[in-house]
Amino acid sequence: MRMRKKKNSEARLEACADLIISSPEEMESYRDKFPVYLEIGCGKGGFIRDTAKRYPDRTFIAAELQTSAIITALENSKAAELGNVRFINTNALMLGEYFKKGDVKEIYLNFSDPWPKKGHTKRRLTYRAFLNVYKNVLSPDGRIVMKTDNDGLFEFSLEEFTTCGWTLENVTYDLHSEEWAKDNIMTEYEKNFTAQGIKIKSLVARPNPS
Fold it and tell me: Counting CB atoms within 10 angstroms of each CB, which of 45, 51, 96, 196 has the fewest?
């Protein structure tokens, strides 16, 4: 869903320019901080902010296509005075231009747009074209952590990961009932869905070496 353009968007982006990686070339200046932890589709940025607070020794990068969304995420991180978070305003299919093999330790896919219509299958962030991009930037021991409220997207993702040769772990249809999920950091969407009694689906996926 396309978000409405925010007022004074250019000025607000400029005020947070120090948190924005504006080009693949600029990414090279952060290479001494790699591997990084990458969230794809950060929304308002609550998850990346809270995760960066918990792990101040790690470098986090959030990729968000919607400029209207990334403004809020930028402002949230700037207000929290976080020095270990940066943002990229780009499509996930372009991440191969920003990262090399092994640059990314962990990828977070939190409540991605399910794109429920059959004709929109290729837009889903767990479609095989995206999975190939992720595999090409993850470290050998890297992984994807996915959470969603949407049953259809979850079933689709399980099939895509399996078909593309990924190894699945911690697959659950009720994340908050799992003992191993005690350290889970909730997103804004997750809090709202949980309050409504909607169970959260989750998985961990690792690419096979081949």
Answer: 196
CA distance 153 to 40: 16
Are residues 46 and 114 in contact, defined by beta-carbon separation less than 8 angstroms?
no
40/87 Cα distance (integer angstroms): 10
pTM to 2 decimal places: 0.93
18, 103, 113, 151: which one is catalytic?
113
Q: What is the DSSP string of 9-56?
A: HHHHHHHTGGGB--SHHHHGGGGGG-SEEEEES-TTSHHHHHHHHH-T
CA neighbor of 68 nearest in space, from 132, 8, 26, 139: 8
- Bridge partners of 167, per DSSP, are 206
CA 143-205-60 angle, to 5 degrees, is: 30
Taking the C-alpha atoms of residue 61 and residue 38, their distance in angstroms, rounded to an integer, is 5
| CB 206, CB 167: distance < 8 Å | yes
Q: Has 151 been annotated as catalytic?
A: no
**pLDDT tens column, 90-117:** 999 999 999 999 999 999 999 999 999 9
- Write the pLDDT tens digit of every residue in 180-198: 888 999 999 999 999 999 9
